[in-house]
Amino acid sequence: MRYVKYILVLLVFVYSCKKGNDIQQQIDTFLGFQAPKNFPQPIYNLANNPVTKDGFELGRKLFYDVRLSRNNTISCGSCHIQSSAFTQHGHDVSHGIEDRLGTRNSPPIMNLAWNKAFMWGGGVFDLDLQPITPITAHEEMDESLENVLNKLRSATAYKEKFKAAFGSEEITTARFMKALSQFMIMCISSNSKYDKVMRKESNAAFTTLELEGYEIFKDKCGSCHKEPLFTDGEFRNNGLAPNPINDKGLYGSTLLSTDKYKFKVPSLRNLKYTAPFMHDGRFLNLDAVFQHYTNEVQATENLDPLLNKNGTRGIAINSDEKSKLLAFLNTLNDEEFINNKLLAEQ
């Protein structure tokens, strides 16, 4: 019996060492930002902030550091969890410090280098500035940027990491933001079955059901959820009934009446991991999403014309088409992204 226990302990030790070595190997062979072959050119200005091994590691440490919040209890990673494609699974809206409730669902951190605007309601057009919003929001981290920087300046380990990443120990707002961006733009989801089929890798091919679903998708969903990112990056009103707080989306940033009830079009990648759905997490599953588009689209102000053709609201999808669409959407799930140890807290 003792011998068996010894073998089990030894196997666990060997596995742990191998797991650690695999992670270290990924770090040692760090290649920086690599755009997938089937993706367009990134929008993020990499020339102003090239991704380096030290910069990425600093950004990853910051991303998972609770010191970014006022009471040192939550990090970026608290609301953006890797196993949920960097969303906050199980919550309709985000939960911040002291369990304060936000007003919107935590959006996934995924393929941000190809985003031209951020957050459900817009207002931020530069990824290097985006973290200011959650850090300073009362219902999220409720901290000031200066306090965050002072906390980091008091930590010897951070002085060393900023020096390695940027050449000196000086911890500034710009360097702090750029380090976070270096981590976030490396959160690339591009290894789903769909991607491998598009890149003709490993003889990947759609099944008949998936292929039929793909054709339906291109006909009925592809105008807003454009390949290969599966979003057009625009803000649209998809006919949701206004929620109890009457969130008006993009209008809150622009104050243009034509922007009322417009929200950012989300990517359809990794739907297996990112429920609940919509800007306020009102739909718990994809069945509810289909129900909305087929039967519940409201004639709200600025309803997208694509959802109101010839006086008919919504998208006609029968049960057979739904099954095929779901089969195709499942090809967009990227387990390699979900399990990428390089993106996990170290």
From TrEMBL:
- Where does the protein principally reside? periplasm
Q: Name one Pfam family in it.
A: CCP_MauG
- UniProt keyword Transferase, yes or no: no
Give one GO molecular function term.
heme binding
Q: Where does heme c 1 bind?
A: C76, C79, H80
Question: Which of UniProt's keywords are assigned here?
Answer: Heme, Iron, Metal-binding, Oxidoreductase, Periplasm, Peroxidase, Signal
Gene3D superfamilies on file? Cytochrome c-like domain
Report one GO cellular component. periplasmic space
Question: What does the entry report about post-translational modification of this chain?
Answer: Binds 2 heme groups per subunit.
Which compartment or compartments is the protein found in?
Answer: Periplasm
**Does the record's keyword annotation contain NADP?**
no
Query: Which cofactors does the annotated protein need, by name?
Result: heme
Residue ranges occupied by any Cytochrome c domain in the UniProt entry:
208-333
> What remark does the entry make about the cofactor?
Binds 2 heme groups.
Which residues participate in heme c 2 binding? C221, C224, H225
Please give the PANTHER family that the UniProt record associates with this protein: CYTOCHROME C PEROXIDASE-RELATED
List the protein's name: Cytochrome-c peroxidase
